[in-house]
Amino acid sequence: MNRKLQIFLLRFNSSEPGASRPASFLAPLHCTPAGRQEVMSHRWTELRTVATSVSNFPAFDGNPVDSPEKTFHDPTRRATFKLCSGNGRGLVRKAVLFRWKELFETLRFLTECWFGFAEKLLCGVLSDRSWFQSGPTSGTKTGPSEQPERCLQPGRLTSEHQHIAATMALSADPNYQKLEQWYRTNANSLKMRAMFDSDPERFGKFSTTLKTDDGDILLDYSKNLINQDVMTMLLALAKSRGVEEAREKMFTGEKINFTENRAVLHVALRNRSNTPILVDGKDVMPEVNRVLDKMKAFCQKVRSGEWKGFSGKSITDVVNIGIGGSDLGPLMVTEALKPYSAGGPNVWFVSNIDGTHMAKTLKQLDPETTLFIIASKTFTTQETITNAESARDWFLQTAGDKSAVAKHFVALSTNAAKVKDFGIDPANMFEFWDWVGGRYSLWSAIGLSIALHVGTSLGRGGVQILVWFKI
Q1: pLDDT, tens digit, for every residue of 378-431?
Q2: Which of 49, 59, 365, 429 could bridge across to 411 with cysteines, CB 3.0–4.6 Å?
Q3: What is the 3-state secondary structure (H, E, C) of 201-213?
Q4: In angstroms, how far is the first alpha carbon of the chain from the final one?
Q5: Counting runs of H as helices and runs of E as strands, what totals does the chain give?
Q6: What are the residues facing 430 on neighbouring strands?
Q7: Separation between Cα atoms, residue 210 and residue 212, nearest integer Å
Q8: Is the CB of residue 18 less than 8 Å from the CB of residue 9?
Q9: How confident is the model over 291-306, as a mean pLDDT?
Q10: What is the phi-psi region of residue 305: left when phi exceeds 0, alpha when psi lies from -120 to 50, beta otherwise?
Q11: DSSP assignment, residue 29?
Q12: H/E/C letters for each residue in 341-389?
């Protein structure tokens, strides 16, 4: 049997790996107050062993089992394996099926059953970065007694890790539970018309207006099924989840995307004050401004008609080829803001690898007046490049000369070599960065189709929202 599994099953009451547990502890331990209290009463070393073992051994031959008895024949292990069991699908049986990379999910799952214990466990795990990054080894720090300044009492995680823990223990948060209970009891009584009829001031209470140089921005949330009690509980939940702390960390370039160990800096793309934003000690703003200025200049040329195709005609249509965040965000925004295009080129989006999508789009276009945007950071995304090659073949049937590709294709990428091989002038390559999440990437070069269609004024609205959010 896997040694880590042996430790998980047998080691709660001894600091020696593999030591047997008292017979009195071998009875099934259910998710009851008594069960949780028993778990919480064990020494920190043993609690740490639970997280160590749960998060480090692979699933049984890669396949979950419906019944522990089918895999474990030793009655001692079988009984222990049923810890916190319920209908044969116990906490331990589920937890052990996760691999090391699912540490966060495992801890979240533990928290749902053993809230007080797991929160304390989270503090220890998250405060020992070397343990967290590389896995457990002999001699690693074992608990709050060795790091009293970092590990607080259950219910009070350090602010440094509060936003991380928040993502793992939402359902165990008392504020969330209070909100959930309120919903179960009162949700059916929330009637929109009745709430407006009974409170003439409702709109004023649940909306705000941002005054900007470009006009007012109304944020109206009065048409949601909320009242003052719900708002109070939501704000309390946001505070307990560390939203304000995470916000500050985001603006300063800390790597709050802990699953990928990356900063989350779409805010830098709307940072018109040019306040330095550091990632690994380097200010990203000079590079951000360079790309945004390049985009603005390019869009002005296309929208004004200065940019000409191979036959000397101006661009009337733009086709964005990409998938995921390179497609959905720009598609949504251009569709929503179509009335504000103000003479910009028409925009089309192709993401489906099915050739029908591309063929149907191209049938409506003129190669002499069409510009293609190929959105792929690595320029190796199979679906995107396949569609891009189809578009290039269609274009060359009319243009003939491969050098004409440079006038009708631009790239959103960081792979200059691949872009050049495709036939695109690297000068017409617009970079973006891994600290821009796909769902926010429309503020980066990925939003080139938006800027071509409606202009660059959208960014000014983004700046105002950014300022409002920050304060």
Answers
A1: 999 999 999 999 999 999 999 999 999 999 999 999 999 999 999 999 999 999
A2: 429
A3: CHHHHCEEEEEEC
A4: 55
A5: 23, 9
A6: 412
A7: 6
A8: no
A9: 95
A10: left
A11: -
A12: CCCCCEEEEECCCCHHHHHHHHCCCCHHHEEEEEECCCCCCHHHHHHHH
* More reliable by pLDDT, 156 or 118: 118
Helix (H, G, I), strand (E, B) or coil at 217: strand
**Judging by DSSP bridges, how do beta strands 317-321 and 346-350 pair with one another?**
parallel
Q: Is the pLDDT of residue 372 over 50?
A: yes
Q: Which of these ranges, 6-20, 214-228, 328-342, has the smallest mean pLDDT?
A: 6-20
Q: Please count the other Cβ atoms lying within 10 Å of the Cβ belonging to residue 382.
A: 10
The angle at the Cα of 106, spanning 176 to 18, to the nearest 5 degrees, equals 135
**CATH number assigned to the domain covering 282-470:** 3.40.50.10490
Single-letter amino acid, residue 40:
M
For the entire predicted model, the pTM comes to: 0.61
Cα torsion angle, 152, 157, 158, 161, sign: positive
Tokens of residue 340, six digits: 């504000």
Q: Which two tokens stand for residue 121?
A: 């466990």
Closest by CA position to 298, among listed 117, 428, 121: 428
Which pair of tokens denotes residue 338?
């179509």
What's the rounded Cα separation, in Å, for the pair 264 and 444?
13
Angstrom distance (rounded) from CA 450 to CA 334: 6
Residue 423 near residue 402, CB atoms below 8 Å: yes
Domain borders along the chain are 3-171, 175-268, 282-470
**Residue 169 confidence (pLDDT):** 63
The encoded tokens of residue 364 equal 């409506």
